[in-house]
Amino acid sequence: MSTEPQPAARADEDVHFRLAGPAIESYPSDAEGPVDYLEVVSDRHGPLGYLWASSTRDAAGFVRRADGGDHAANESVAWVRDLRAARARGVPAGELLDFFARTPLPLDPDASHYGRVVPGPRSTASTLSVLRSIAAS
């Protein structure tokens, strides 16, 4: 038996992907102007990030904290799933923060959350870039 490395097979034709089902709709992930947000924390891992929404653009998303590590990264995946599920239910972006503050997680059965939304008054950042800066510091 040879232990020599075998050359990897290489394709020399373009790969073409075909959508296998309906597109999954989500909220736009960019916003102009102020965004409202709530903190998402884990009892074991501390602050993970911020769930934000902009009613002026009907946009929403999750910004993970830079110091949240792998748990914050995983939390962002769970929020992608739950934001898509909220969109499918017709929840307007302007109502999302209140909706998720009172709705048990996960909304999508495949979303696996480490954290929870901290209930309470919303905070407002003047722009999404400002919120991203807060999350990065």
Automatic annotation (TrEMBL):
Organism expressing this protein natively: Actinomadura namibiensis
The protein's name: Uncharacterized protein
